[in-house]
From TrEMBL:
Gene that this sequence comes from: gltX
GO BP, one annotated term: glutamyl-tRNA aminoacylation
Domain of life the protein comes from: Bacteria
Transmembrane segments: none
Chain coiled-coil ranges: none
Ranges of residues in domain Glutamyl/glutaminyl-tRNA synthetase class Ib catalytic: 3-304
Binding-site residues, ATP: 242
Enzyme class per UniProt: ligase
Motif, 'KMSKS' region: chain positions: 239-243
Protein name stated in the entry: Glutamate--tRNA ligase
UniProt organism field: Aurantiacibacter xanthus
Protein family according to the UniProt entry: Belongs to the class-I aminoacyl-tRNA synthetase family. Glutamate--tRNA ligase type 1 subfamily.
Compartments where found: Cytoplasm
Any single Pfam family the record assigns to this protein: tRNA-synt_1c
Matching InterPro entries: aa-tRNA-synth_I_cd-bd, aa-tRNA-synth_I_codon-bd_sub2, aa-tRNA-synth_I_CS, aa_tRNA-synth_I_cd-bd_sf, Glu-tRNA-ligase_bac/mito, Glu/Gln-tRNA-synth, Glu/Gln-tRNA-synth_Ib_cat-dom, GluQ/Sye
Length: 444
């Protein structure tokens, strides 16, 4: 069964790039009727915060990306310890004692000589006695995974195609800090194996991690999952800007962006499929295909999101927005006003036009007497607007703008807005007659 996972580190709020990764993992699993797991990568205790975990849950719920299971790395430390001991016994992890400063000096020397800044494996040459001596001096080791240099590392990436790395050109990755805490790399492989993850889909910034992780899977006796790395998301100015890095679900919600709009955009951004306000997730899922993903960075434009949002808002049913509408605004109100709003919040403004009071604005002498007649001719029926305008047209000969505009202004106080045929029944007979009469008496 296709099993994917979204594995955020709870060290900050999810930004639009993380949201996209979560969405694509959800889509990949759901398209195939598989499982989408949430894994909280909280091994960095100093930087992980419970509030961010809560935020991740809230954001996924808002987006409608419901995980089929959830795990936390901080609760799985015993499992990592056991695997670590196995790798240690097999000589695949080794202790290192260099300080960050020492490593930095070596890097600078390598770079100065035009060499790639790869860890020189000096610690691998230390004898057991030398290691013991370091520890007797009170230096606790950090640990590296020993890459096997025998063969190139290759995989067929779901987005990038054939990938090949020479392990000799990679540093043995640090997997554990001197205080015993884990970096995410090894625990991630252990978890992916245990949780039956079949597909790892993540950002292209992880490509070289994948090369080393493939060897970790093998060292742990497992077959690596399939990997796919999507091109990163960039802002209109061409990189993942500070702004994009801070744009998360809360900010979008405040702007009136619907989760369905974000989903519709991010599902297809950077793919060869058209970005459309598709509200139907089944349709989005059916067309989801890693083969459509491009290698170029995906450009995220807020104007495009606003455009998609517009299209999505116009498809929202009353049941979907009911809780966010003003008191008293029923289904007929939503359906009348929906074509005229860019966000659900704007419905309140139009609803205040329905409930009144309204100011008719400037009207000519002629329009005022026309409106006085309208107040008299108004009869309440199934179709009061068609009846009223029909009667006025027949009697006064007015048509088009001359017929409709003064009525709209008197009834709504505005020159534009939702269809009057839908609004008038909502305004109601008494209020409508009063507004027409008041406008007729207003000062020109
Ligand atoms: N916690 C890691 C990150 O957020 C997970 C990466 C992965 O998907 O494997 O970068």
């Amino acid at each position: 069964m296709t099993t994917t996972r979204f594995a955020p580190s709870p060290t900050g709020n999810l930004h639009v790039g993380n949201i996209r990764t979560a969405l694509h993992n959800w889509m990949l699993a759901k398209r195939d009727g598989g499982r989408f797991l949430l894994r909280i990568d909280d091994t960095d205790q100093a930087r992980s915060k419970e509030a961010y975990v809560d935020g991740i849950h809230a954001d996924l719920a808002w987006l409608g990306l419901v995980p089929d299971g959830e795990e936390r790395q901080s609760e799985r430390l015993a499992i990592y310890e056991e695997a670590f001991e196995r790798l240690r016994a097999a000589g695949r992890v080794y202790p290192c004692y260099e300080t960050a400063q020492e490593l930095e000096v070596r890097r600078k020397i390598q770079l100065g000589r035009g060499l790639p800044p790869i860890y020189d494996r000096a610690a691998l040459a230390l004898s057991d006695e030398e290691c013991a001596a370091k520890e007797a001096e009170g230096i606790a080791p950090h640990w590296r995974f020993r890459l096997d240099h025998a063969e190139p590392i290759a995989w067929d990436d779901g987005v990038r195609g054939a990938q090949k790395f020479d392990p000799a050109l990679l540093s043995d990755p640090v997997i554990r800090r001197a205080d015993g805490s884990w970096l995410y790399m090894l625990p991630s492989c252990i978890d992916d194996i245990e949780m039956g993850v079949t597909q790892v889909l993540r950002g292209e910034d992880h490509v070289s991690n994948t090369a080393t992780q493939i060897q970790m899977f093998t060292a742990l006796g497992a077959t690596p999952p399939a990997f796919a790395h999507e091109a990163l998301l960039v802002g209109s100015e061409g990189k993942l800007s500070k702004r994009l890095g801070s744009l998360g679900c809360d900010a979008f919600r405040e702007q009136g962006i619907e989760p369905g709009a974000l989903v519709a955009l991010l599902a297809r951004l950077g793919t060869s499929l058209p970005v459309e306000p598709l509200a139907d997730r089944a349709e989005l899922l059916a067309s989801f295909d890693l083969a459509t993903f491009g290698r170029a960075p995906a450009r995220f434009e807020e104007a495009e999101l606003a455009r998609i949002n517009h299209g999505i808002v116009h498809q929202l049913t009353y049941a979907e927005v009911e809780e966010r509408l003003p008191e008293g605004m029923g289904e007929a109100g939503w359906l009348a006003i929906r074509p005229n709003v860019a966000t659900v919040a704007e419905a309140a403004d139009w609803w205040s036009v329905v409930t009144g009071p309204v100011e008719p604005g400037d009207l000519s002498e002629e329009d005022r007497s026309f409106l006085a007649r309208a107040a008299e001719l108004l009869v309440w029926s199934e179709t009061p607007w068609a009846d009223l305008t029909g009667a006025l047209k027949a009697e006064t000969g007015r048509k088009g703008k001359a017929l409709f505009l003064p009525l709209r202004q008197a009834l709504t106080g505005r020159a534009h807005g939702p269809e009057m045929a839908a609004l008038l029944p909502l305004i109601g007979e008494e209020a409508a007659r009063t507004r027409l009469a008041l406008a007729a008496k207003s000062q020109g």
